[in-house]
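thought: fold this chain, then report.
action: predict
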Amino acid sequence: MRNTSRALFVPLAVAAAALLPLSTAHAAAGYDRCPAGSYCMFSGLDGTGDVIKLTQNTPDLARLGMDNRAKSDWNRTSSTIHLWSDANYSGCTTVTSSGPTGKGNFFPSYRDFFSSVQFDGPGGPSCGTPPGEGR
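observation:
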């Protein structure tokens, strides 16, 4: 008499193993989507929503779908980032420093406000101090 239970067990075990994920690593979420060496802007607060990852000057954020849409950012470069209110580095500017202070939500008056990004530029006229910051 032949043992058929062992013959069925091996194919079932192989099929079950094929259904298990090969890795338990999770996809990056929130701010973690911003790779080292990039300046990232997010359409939502706290690094949520759409993201763009920049490594060079960007005169027109509309080309990347982020014109007047950013609500948070993270500067993971060694550059000082100048955020311009208008395309082609015009209008007024604010600065996002590199390092630990270069990550967070924009002040409410600066949400959905910026149209171009300049790395280490000369900057321009200040957009002013956001409410509550000048204390």
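thought: worth noting. The two ends are 89 Å apart (CA to CA).
final: tokens above.
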